[in-house]
Amino acid sequence: TQEPEEKKIALELLETEQAYVSRLHLLDQVFYTELMKEAKTRKTVPEEVVKMIFSNISSIYQFHAKFFLPELQERMEDWSCNPRIGDVIQKLAPFLKMYGEYVKNFDKALELLTAWSERSPPFQELISDIQKREVCANLTLQHHMLEPVQRIPRYELLLQEYVRKLPPTSPDREGAEKALEMIFMVAKHSNAAIAEMERLQNLWVVYERLGLEDDIVDPSNELIKEGPVQKISTRNSSTSEKYLFLFNNMLLYCVPKVIQVGAEFQVHLRIDVDGMKVRVLKDSQLPHTFLVSGKQRTLELQAR
User: Fold this and answer.
1) What is the spatial distance between Cα 131 and Cα 138, in angstroms, rounded to a whole number?
2) 10-residue block means of pLDDT along the chain (304 residues)?
3) How far apart are CA 218 and CA 300, in angstroms?
4) Cα 171 from Cα 79, distance rounded (Å)
5) What is the greatest pairwise CA distance in the chain?
6) What's residue 214's pLDDT?
7) Is residue 76 within 8 Å of residue 14, measured between CB atoms?
8) Residues 86, 135: Cα–Cα separation, whole Å
9) Model-level pTM?
10) How many CB atoms within 10 Å of residue 75?
11) By the 8 A CB rule, do 241 and 228 touch?
């Protein structure tokens, strides 16, 4: 007899999970374990670097190998009596939040891997040796490291397909829909973690350009816009090059440094956004001019 469509998808979930667990085994028990041993005994790479490259892969591997895969296998063996997977996935979903850390760290991990492969030939040699093994299927470590990043979207697609194929009267309808909603929230959580990491990275770069002034460095700030302007001197109508950084709470009025050692700009003035007013000036001699007035001071500026 023809297998029901939803069972085929549930079996596909099980098969891809088995393959995924063997990839996680390769990452954690082979690459990570052997590179860590190399770091401890021969000191060809700092232990800290190896830990940062593999992030929390050990927790991810243990969770899938010891919990999720066995539960899924047991359920599929028992399918004729209990044709559902929604409840198993609902148990899995909260734990998938641990992927946030791995995904957030992924770009940094690849950078470290590239940098240390160039810096330490023995480190690169060991990676190449492992990559030549049959278990690696002619794929690089970077390729295998990408698998956890792609796993949650894969669950989402399979589960969407599963829900679509379920008959309206299926005992798993409610459970599977709830599971899909939970997986969707986890995917969102993972994407939010990446966006937050990028925001903080970009913010840190801006702080470095400003010379890391203590009262400015605040992780909750949001950079909205930055760019060059001309400052108009009311005394003699001359202009001088300045630079603005607009945050959600303050406008920084800066001067580009002539000798760019360390910081790129010097902060001359801070105007609080609270109570700040901006007025466009109609001046035919000086187009694109505007007035910024705040509690601290008023500036007459010209944009490009």
Assistant:
1) 7
2) 87 96 97 95 93 96 96 94 94 89 90 93 95 93 93 93 92 94 87 78 84 73 90 78 91 84 83 92 84 88 88
3) 28
4) 12
5) 92
6) 61
7) yes
8) 32
9) 0.69
10) 17
11) yes
Give dist(CA 120, CA 46) in Å, integer.
10
Within a domain: 105 = yes
For helices 141-165 and 121-131, the axis angle rounded to 10 degrees is 40
Question: Pick from 90, 48, 282: which is nearest to 186 by CA?
Answer: 90
The whole-number pLDDT of residue 191 equals 78
Same domain, 139 and 28: yes
CATH number (domain holding residue 248): 2.30.29.30
Strand partners, 301: 231, 290
* Rounded-to-integer distance, Cα 208 and Cα 75, Å: 54
- Domain with 121, as residue range(s), is 5-210
The predicted structure's pLDDT at residue 205: 84
Q: How far apart are CA 255 and CA 279, in angstroms?
A: 22
Same domain as 136, residue 15:
yes
SS (H, E, C) 68-84: HHHHHHHHHHCCCCCCC
Q: Strand (E) positions, the chain? A: 223-232, 239-247, 250-256, 265-272, 277-281, 289-293, 298-302
Whole-number Cα distances in Å, 256 to 11, 227, 262, 288, 295: 62, 11, 12, 21, 24
Tell whether 42 and 156 lie within a shared domain: yes
The values of phi and psi at residue 79, to 5°, are -55, -40
